Amino acid sequence: MTDNDRLARSLHELVTDTASRQISRETAHLADIEVDSHGIHAMSPPQGYAAPASGVVMTHVAARSRDIPAAGIEVRVAVWVSTPGAESPTILLTRSDDDRTLSIDVADLQPDPTPHARGQVNDFVAVIIAHMVSGLNVAMQRTYLHESDDTDAEYDRDDNNP
Domain map of the chain by residue range? Predict the structure, then answer.
């Protein structure tokens, strides 16, 4: 395993651990959450980056509403390494559903992730989780409205004047 492979897998592990710590009990009770790591889903590396030599490093998170099973959301986070010859070697995190990325200098990952790198990952994961919860809420509302005969939102109704 090359040094870049080791660093990519170390960063992947940090992302997964951070996400596990950040998912609140409320979120866990709201949805069934599945997390798996595989490179089956095709994602292309951004310009100047490639998959680690040992293969794509990706985390797939799927959340499905417990109350409205038809409502769900998925996110994939991939880890890329800068191509050889890069001026400043970095490891990059990308999301499949967003343009937001996180680039971390290799120096911030050796021999272990620095507090700065941990803080960057913490913020990146927090935004992903917030977007997932928000997206799941939107999916639940859309599904509820499609399944309901009620076309008025609760705030549009005047329950005192039928």
Answer: 3-148
